[in-house]
Amino acid sequence: MMPVGLAYPLVAMFAVQVVASLANFAVPVLATEMSSDIGVAATYVGYYSALVYTATMIAGLIAGSFIAGQGAVRTAQLALLSAVAGLLVATLSTPLALGLAAVLIGACYGPVGPAGSHLLARVTPPRWRPLVFSIKQTGVTAGGLLAGVLLPPAALLYGWQTALLLLGAIGLVAAFAVQPLRAGADADRETGRRVSRRDLLASLGLAFGPSLRRITWNSVGFAISQSVLSAFFVVYLVSELDLPLARAGLIFSVVQASGIVGRIAWGYFAERRFSAQQILALLALVIAASFVILPLLSPTTPLWVFLVFAAMLGASVYGWNGVMLAEWAALAPEGRVAEATGGVQFVMFGGSVAAPPIVGLVVAQTGGYTLAFAAVVAVALSNCFMLLTGRRPG
User: Fold this and answer.
1) In this structure, is residue 180 part of a structural domain?
2) Helix residue spans in the chain (DSSP H)
3) Which domain holds residue 31?
4) Rounded Cα gap, residues 20 and 82, in angstroms
5) What's the structural domain count of the chain?
6) DSSP per position, 249-288
7) What is the pLDDT of residue 25?
8) When you count CB atoms within 10 A of the terminal residue's CB, does the N or C end of the chain come out lower?
9) Rounded CA separation 200/213 (Å)
10) Helix (H, G, I), strand (E, B), or coil: what is residue 125?
11) Is the CB of residue 118 less than 8 Å from the CB of residue 55?
C-alpha cells in the first residue's frame, strides 16, 4: 500500500500540474477560434508552441537553483501566477500579446516538473517512484482533457477571451490553495541561495553525464511526438478533416483521458513487471504506429474509430512521462534530482521547441501533413531501437 504521508504532497503537485497543463493547452485547443481575431493562420500555433517551450527550457534549467533557495511549493506558486499573467495578456488579441503570453505560460510550465520531482523524491520510497511520478504526471493529461472538454464549449458560448479569463481565475485559486503545504515541504530550502551560471552549467552537465546521457536523448524523441500532437492535433482534425470544433475537442479529450490511464498503468508496471526501458520502448513503437494511422483517417471515418484510435494515441504519446521522470530521478546523483530534472528537461524541450515550427513549415510547403508525420514515425522508431539496445547505467 502506498505510504499515507504521500497523499497531501502528491495531490498538491498533481493539482499544480493540472492547472499548468490547462494553460499550456489553451491556445492550441482554441487556435481555430482565436486566429481570425488575432489575424494569423491557425497553423501559426506551431510558432506559438516553439515560444512556449523555449521559455519552458530556460525556466526549467533555472528551476533547480531556484527551488533550492525558495522551496518547491513557492516555486510552483510563482509558476502558476506566471501562467495567470500569460492568459490575461493573451486576451489582448494581438500577435505581440500572444507571443508574450507564450513566454509567460512557458515560464510556468518549466519549473513545475522539477518542483514536483524535488518534493516527491524526498518523500517517496524508490519502489513507489514510477507509480507516484506517473500519478503526478497525469496532471498533464488531465489538464489536456479538461482543455478539450471545457474550452471549446466555453469559447463558443462566451468567446475565447472569457474562456481564458476563467482559466486564469482557476490558476489564482490553485496558487493559494497549496500554501498550507509550504511550511513542511519547503523546510529544506537554503535561505539566501541565488541562481548562478555555475548552477545552470551543472544541471546541463548532469543531463549529458554518463548516467543520464542516453535517457536524455530518449526524452527528446518522446517530446517531439508529444509537442507535434499537442500543437497540431485539433488543428488537423478541424482544418484537414473538416470536423466540427466540438467533435475535435471531444476526440482530443479522449486522447488526454487515455493518457491518464496509460500513465498510471505504465507507472504501476515499471519496475514491477517490466523495466522502465522496456515500457518506454513499447510506447515508442506504439507512437510510431499511431502516426502511421493518423493520415489514413478521413471525414467519413466513424466516430467510434476516432475514439478507439484516440485511446491508443493518448496512452502512448501522453503515457510515457511519469515513467521517464522516475527514471531521471533514479539515475540522478543523490540529492540532485531537481537539478538533473531541470537539465534533462532543458534538452528534452529542445525537441519540443524545434518540432512544431518545422512541422508548420513542412505543412505549408507540401500542402499536407504526410511528410511531417513520417518524420515523427522515424524519430519514434529510432527511440525504440535505442531503448532496446541500451542498458541502464548501474
Assistant:
1) no
2) 7-38, 45-70, 72-90, 95-123, 129-158, 160-177, 182-185, 197-207, 213-235, 245-269, 276-293, 303-317, 321-331, 337-366, 370-389
3) 4-175+195-389
4) 10
5) 1
6) HHHHHHHHHHHHHHHHHHHHHBTTTB-HHHHHHHHHHHHH
7) 87
8) N
9) 17
10) coil
11) no
